[in-house]
Amino acid sequence: MIRPRRWLVPFTVAFGLSACGGVTPKVDSPADSTATEPAAVAAPPPVIRDTADQAARIVDAKLRVLLHVDRVKDHPLAPRLVSMKAWGGLLEAAGIDPLEDVDRAFVAAKNARDPRAVIAVAEHHVSEERLRAAIDEIVAGSGPDGKLLPELGVLAAKVKVRGRESVVLAVTPTLLVVTSDDYAKAATALAATGGLPEPGGDEAVRVRAERPSETLKAPRAPRVPRTISEVEATVTMASDGGADVLIVGQSTNPAQAKADASALTEAVDRATTVEVAIVKIRAFDPVTFAAVDDRVEGRRHLSWNELNTLLGFAEMMAR
What is d(CA 105, CA 122) in angstroms, rounded to the nearest whole number? Predict the structure, then answer.
């Protein structure tokens, strides 16, 4: 659906009144006329891009990932970077190309272990007709488990892709949502939101985890100290085919931050090292964390090979 531009509204109203006759204005003589200031036209309110926050509240998310597709689409590893497990192959099944059709993608989860408490949002520029046809195609390919859900009040369907059941909702012409049926009804409220946030800097990916010692607990994942209450990581793509990574964790005080930095350095090194017989093979050089006041910070430039290896580790830990 094409929305009228805001600046056309006052123009259309004025033109419509004159074209339809309206009220014949009184023509003042020069003696009676007085100069009047034109009425000020209020600027349209700014769009509040609150979709990510509202989606996170639906599943009580402690883990968030925001991807700006235009920042990665020309990167050699772009296909792997945009391959989020939360989509479960749904975009591919719908014939939607995440690199060409999607502007931003967001995933929020309660933790790294519960596959049902997850909600994914794609902000896209796929036409309404093509999107409807894509959803119909997924429903048809889902067998007896697939069906449209008109009772939700938006274009929505229950689908099954790669053995995984999900509900897909086109809550607005540009927002596509995927979640479990536990959260499908609540997800319809995203129709009143203003879209995913713009990047705050040069980052392509932003990851945030609250209570990371619990949220990120998973087999083969590095152990995060309990005294770190929140972790945020940003990934900025580099011209050499690699990426610059910044990880910041919030500790309790400067003294504890020093202990947490040491523990986190050891945990990441252990998680990215493979033992073959009596030989230890590191995926890449260690990431060293340091205390900065009451925070823990780690910075690292990853080459193409290192980034490729890291993505492999991430895919392995997600299984």
Answer: 5
Distance (Å, whole) CA 237 – CA 301: 10
Instruction: Tell me the per-residue pLDDT of 183-235, one tens digit each, with 9 for 90 and over.
Output: 999 999 999 999 999 998 999 999 999 999 999 988 778 899 999 999 999 99
Residue pair 278/310 in contact by the 8 Å Cβ criterion: no
Looking at residue 194, its amino acid is G
Q: Say which residues have a Cβ less than 8 Å from residue 289's Cβ, sequence separation at least 6.
A: 247, 249, 260, 261, 262, 264, 265, 268, 296, 297, 298
Domain extent listing, the chain: 48-198, 204-319
Model-wide pTM > 0.85: no
Is residue 231 within 8 A of residue 208, CB to CB? The reply is yes
Contact 51, 106 (CB under 8 A): yes
Task: Return d(Cα 70, Cα 312) in angstroms, integer.
Answer: 22
Tens of pLDDT, residues 271-291: 877 655 555 566 667 789 999
